Amino acid sequence: MSQGVIQGSMREAPLPDIIQLVSQGGKSGCFHVQQESAKARIYLKDGKIIHAVTHSGEGFESLMEVALWIEGNYRFEEVVPDVPVTITKPNASILMELARRMDEWRVISQKIPSVDLYPASTLLPGETAQGVNPREARLLAQATGYYSVAELAELAEKPVMTLAKDLYGLVMAGHVVMKGIRSGKAPKQEAPRDLIPVSQLLGGGAPTPIAEFIQEDETAIVRLQAPPPVPHRFPEQEEPLPETVGGGIANLTPPPAPIPAPAPKPKPVAEDPQRTVKLMNFTQRIAQAAKMVLPETMHEVVDRLQSKATQQIISGEGPEAVKGLALAISRSAVDAGLDADMVRTLNTHLKALFSTK
Asked: Which of 48, 79, 106, 254 is the most exposed place for a label (fewest CB within 10 A)?
């Protein structure tokens, strides 16, 4: 190994750790990263990450493509970089995001080992998948075995990781299988739709007021009403539902004014059977993802928690029961004394199910 050159395998030493080590030394140079035919160059100046280039482009998202390269090799050469500055984020946030995506891909790659494989739907002609959101349904229609994962991401103009998360959920649900050979026909491309009425998401045919329109990609769990926007992340803790307080009209002058009749209560969520089925299917996907990580001694606990969530959905608690199931499984793993790595892997599985972008 010549002076000024550092090289190794990403399998033996994670790339974020090596970049951090080099950056702490205030070095300037270029990381040459390669996995099979895929190549990337990551430039540092005085220890600061300033630029990255891959076959698909340059900048921050190009650097994040390296998260998919579990078997890649790297080589760092000390040179004076003569490149534009396309990355301005602090090294710490860049490397944390790169490491997080690598952890996610290690989970996803258990079902999607390569972005060069061809997703193919397992549904029969005319059959409709249960428990999928509109974005997943559109992806399922494109999974004919003709396009690879990378090609589907390019068609959708989305990062490969984003599309792979949706495919992971479809594979886990048994709606998609991965094939090594191109087959089938190219799917028909539909015009993009930005807004979807809630009634259509729930399978209803009645007209939907404009106020009930929601962004199609905003949530993985169908809602009955359009709530205020919230961050799309796995919930850290449950938030209590607001309580309504009843009351009458104050007595301003005698005789007292009559107390208005209370407004009729909305029908419980459980009365919408299609929505209930979707939420129950989602609890099954959560339980399946958890059992992939947890030891068999914990499977009975998962089944019991899923059964409880199912009863809550039937009684009208809806998405809160689904969120509560994921939280309860994670807490049970901690309470059972499982090691930290297993708990982190479990949470990564669950986050992949709740991710929407």
From this structure: 254
